[in-house]
Amino acid sequence: MAKDLYKDTKKNCIIAIVVLSLLLAACGAPSGKVEGNSDGCEDFDTPQGAEVNEEWPEEYYSCEVQELSGYLYEHTSISASPYASAEITIKDYEGEQLETDWDEPEAFEFSGEADVTWRFYNSIEEMGEVLNEAAIQEADGGSVHFLYYTFPMAENDHAMDLYHVLQRRFDTEEHPLAVWCTDNGKVLSFFQETVKEEDGYKLVSMRSLDSRVNLYVKDRTAYGLTLMNVLAEDDERILDYVFYDVFQHYGSRPPWSGWGLDEESLYWIDHNERLTELENPKRSFLEVRGIDENWEEAGDEGIMRYFGLLVEADYELPLTEDGRMLSLHFSLAEEDETSVEEEELELRYYLLNGYCMDEAYNMTVTDMETGEILQERSVSLSIELPDTITYPDLNGDGYADMRVGRPVHSSGSKAEEEGYTPPVYMLWNQQTEQFERKTEKEVENSKRAVANGLTEEEQEEKSKRERSDPFAPIQELTEWADPEDYIKLSGDRIMEYEVQEGDSLWRISERFYGTGYKWMTIVRAEDAPKDPNYLPVGETVFMPGNFYIRKDPYSMGGLRSEGSFQIEQPYGFAHYFLNGDLTYAPWEEENQIHSLPVTNPVGENPFHEPEAWEAFKAEAIRCSEELCPGRVSNLTFEKSHIEDGYDLYGYYFEYDTGEEIIEYVDFFKFGKNNMSEVIGVREQEPNTVLVNTVRYVAASFIDYGGEPGMGWGSGKIPNVGADKWDYPYLHNLFEAAREQFGTGD
Predict the structure, then answer these.
(1) How confident is the model over 299-316, as pLDDT tens digits?
(2) Whole-prediction pTM value?
(3) What is the DSSP string of 244-285?
């Protein structure tokens, strides 16, 4: 049964006029006032050899709807002129969608008569004028009306140009313009999707009847089909068949069976190269179409075999803000060039997933003022998309360096580079006046060297020592260090600092305390200027001596007991939590750390007063002499103030067993409800790793309060050597050493 159509035919015709006028204007035809094309879409020229001003007779044809698509395809291929249109009127149609399996195409039982009126033109301008006049005519409300048209694209017009114009004219939030390629890239379809929101979700439909734009391009020839009157909602699904049936003869399958194209991949469909120019720094890029030989599924003509490959790139940049200008030129090395190392040349291929890897480039660095070539070398880079090279000062030495991003190519899109291989770094060496390729670690080392006033070799040695002793205290933080990553300790000594050029009290405070707000703790000599903003170079200022211990970035806390306390477990040491007394015997493993967080039996801090700490040191010295005569050496004591308000105490010594030297370290920290004692023991080694690690573990102890002890430390087992001195709540390591190894008597 025939479906009812909307009766507002005049309104529908006006819509059709606007659509056709704009569409043809987008393709180069004038229709009334059409603004100039700013997207680079030239007018489509009449092909050479076409007859001009010839009078073309109209042609009429009538057929069943089921025969329409084949007829249009055959007639277009033998038409008298490449500029042709057909007004199609379908009368007495009726249709029904048939049931099909999920893996089979949709099927329709569709009948009706189609009257076709053909017109031919000498140019697209002439075709546009006639179609606009035809669209004004009122259509029979009982029929369905289409305009079908075809025209060749001119030599200088491209798919990207057409896309930009159509997007500007028709793209809306409800109907965004989309481009798909089918038949392995041989057919392009420009159409508008339909976006609807249902139950809070956005649903995208590709049904052609919801689109004002239905334009297909094959072999540089465009074929368009526009519905001229608005249909009842029940008609849309059935008449969708007309669009599908017409265009399938041009080799097109439904859009969802091909590839959705972004602008990058759309550009390379009909371009062989692209020159891009940018500023700050001034730079230009020459890109050409590359072919991925490994993309087997795409076939010889597949669009997915192509991507933009950078062949040449030029940069002009100031080496420093007030320095000379450099010119950098990159050119893609030929395959037979052997200037790049063999292992780098092995990367010159493209993965089957389309991701681009390194290419071999020749790089030339030139002084623009003198014309002198400063450097010529081959580099292996991945710069297949423009503007992937930036020139930040990576190490803070005041010279521009080079950072090459590592973009990937996937269906023409630039993916997030962080998800793939890391960037390439090249630092400028002012001594050799050349760019030198560096790893990320080497860049970080150079940055630290500049900050510390060291050479890169000196900084590397310093970093090696820090890596072998991760908890070694440092005197000051670098400017990029986060104070939250460190435990800050203050000793009793006073540190002197000589003012340098550019210093201020604020900057000195930032350098040594991690914040400028502690500038008032810096002490100046009595004869220094009273103005705090005047700081002469060479003046000596005084500060409490601070040092910092880096927190273990991989530790989550070695012990948590329902919020009572926490203590770290250092990597690389045999670590033991003790319940009650030490279970150290026989202490055979190397690098042992024993932690004993227990209920604090003596209050917050029994050594808070200086005389109390001095008394403890005297008692420890007495024990070392009486319990271990001639065995103890290098007995050292420490007391530090921690930023959290607590104090940290410790002592360490070496014990001679007669066969070997054993190191002992003991640090303790008192909280409100709990305390922690940390003991380390190992065979003597020529470094302070054990001392630094034990100090860090003790300093990391946090007393959260709550129920004291939380079951740790029953108090029934006395600490070893408790009866040998006046501090029974602490272990007497001199007695522990004597019990284990004896005194030799």
Answers:
(1) 455 544 556 677 888 999
(2) 0.52
(3) HHHHGGGTPPPGGGSEE--HHHHHTTS-SEEEEEETTTEEEE
